[in-house]
Amino acid sequence: MAPASLSNANGLRCSTCGTKGLSSCGSLLGEFGKRLDEQGLTFKPVQRTVHARRNIYIAGEASEDAYIMCSGWACRLVRLPDGRCQILSFLLPGDLFSAAAPFQEQLDFYVEAITEVRYAAMNRAAIRSKLSEDPRTLEAFMNLCIAETKDANQMLTELGQRTADEHIARLILHLMERLSMRGMVHDQSFEFPLRQQHIADAMGLTPVHISRVMSVFRQDGLIEIHDGKMKVRDLEELRRIAGIK
Amino acid sequence: MAPASLSNANGLRCSTCGTKGLSSCGSLLGEFGKRLDEQGLTFKPVQRTVHARRNIYIAGEASEDAYIMCSGWACRLVRLPDGRCQILSFLLPGDLFSAAAPFQEQLDFYVEAITEVRYAAMNRAAIRSKLSEDPRTLEAFMNLCIAETKDANQMLTELGQRTADEHIARLILHLMERLSMRGMVHDQSFEFPLRQQHIADAMGLTPVHISRVMSVFRQDGLIEIHDGKMKVRDLEELRRIAGIK
DNA sequence: CGTTGCGTTGAGTACCATCAACTGGGGTGG
DNA sequence: CCACCCCAGTTGATGGTACTCAACGCAACG
């Protein structure tokens, strides 16, 4: 297997995830990925493949590497002692498990596969040394950390303020946008491997309630789901419900 | 006014906030504050004082400085177009408005005073240049960013999974612990300037419901509130409700 | 062909929101 | 000094959102 690289500013295909252009696999890495590449750093070809529903990373596990999603869907989640579980975010191809990972020996959340997942690794210490060598790489790296923090603040607002209707509509639109940046949306239709349990765990609701709300969305002709694919049939109305003028 | 410094590893009083020792004002800065000081960086003596209920920072406002709380309470919050508002966190003396601020020209949240607040500023570019000069300072800085991200993940779990009882009990205990690190708790009693509206905005509930829950806490002898001070009367029971064994 | 996982649907319930009235303290001004 | 207002909090009545428990349908799979 060829050495992997996420930098493809020249339009090269990324050998790690197989997508093309920074706007797809490297969308979140952006400038940071380009700089890592310029400095000769690549993600290890040692790609691991994990099957759906399996655990990828266990909270608190020490690791010398930082990880990046190559293909498939996963989620970051926190487990409470009594069995409750909160999904922090969904991971798509090109996403790092954690932006600050180069400086964290262990993460405080689990990562679990939703579909079959391929992911790659890069030595944390190597990234750290590059960061302290080049201020521009550091700047690019910090932009990733800032984006992750902004996402977390956004999610706080979603969880605290949104009703179930709003929240579900926004999740669909948000995922559609992220997939769209990766060229994975065609004709308002895209892969949608989430179980209703995933959505419930992400929003702090029950699968039963998710089912009711999504049934209404379907009956109202907003969305359609077949064979693990979702098609948005009434984007305008979905955005209205989501509170996006 | 003397130049301010948050580094007080030698037991010196911090001239910015007037508290003593790293365990108080500098608790969140820790190693990072020490390193800034070793390198001759100090927070500007240009301290601004803001009165209760006033806006300190408006989301999107560009600034050359990063800010730190010197005294008083404030909160970081997001406003939705329809008037809803989500408090992201409460800021106590020694807290930075945002850990990643040196790399952010503007923040995506508001900062509002809860009590009268004093805060200080440090040039963002100066911090950035120090960070790329010294790997150990960078490491210390990243630990702040990581702590902030962890807090956000923690809050996501609180908002998504906790009932009102749990959530309020945990907020009280969490604040008590943070204040305790600053030497601001005596005999399980501490300043508590939050309006029930603040608590409601932090948890996505209504002030009316906060009132009911806290009334029960008071009637059950868990807490006591007089003159803007809270006293925890039954720590064990409060921890049990909070789900802490 | 039973099993298993996932989603749907119904009935009853709990939690929290909403609306509204009222209390008490603190400030202000006549 | 008192009337007045405002703010924060309390309390009651009522309603809606979402939970719980349970039964059932359906497709995939061994």
Can you offer a commentary on this structure?
Two copies of one chain form a homodimer. The longest helix of chain A has 27 residues. Chain A has seven helices and ten strands. In chain A, the strands form three sheets. A four-stranded antiparallel sheet of chain A has the order 2-6-4-5. A three-stranded antiparallel sheet of chain A has the order 1-7-3. Chain A is globular. The first copy, chain A, is α+β, with helices and mostly antiparallel strands. In chain A, helix 1 runs antiparallel to helix 3, helix 2 crosses helix 3 and helix 5 packs across helix 6. Chains A and B meet through strand 5, helix 2 and helix 3 of A and strand 5, helix 2 and helix 3 of B. Chain A binds a DNA duplex (30 and 30 nucleotides) through helix 6.
Topology summary:
Two copies of one chain form a homodimer.
Chain A: H1 30-38, E1 44-50, E2 55-57, E3 65-71, E4 74-79, E5 85-91, E6 110-113, E7 117-123, H2 124-133, H3 135-161, H4 164-181, E8 189-191, H5 196-203, H6 207-219, E9 223-226, E10 229-232, H7 235-241
Antiparallel strand pairs in A: 1-7, 2-6, 3-7, 4-5, 4-6, 8-10, 9-10
Helix pairs in contact in A: 1-3, 2-3, 5-6
The first copy, chain A, binds a DNA duplex (30 and 30 nucleotides) through residues 163-164, 195-197, 205-212, 214-215.
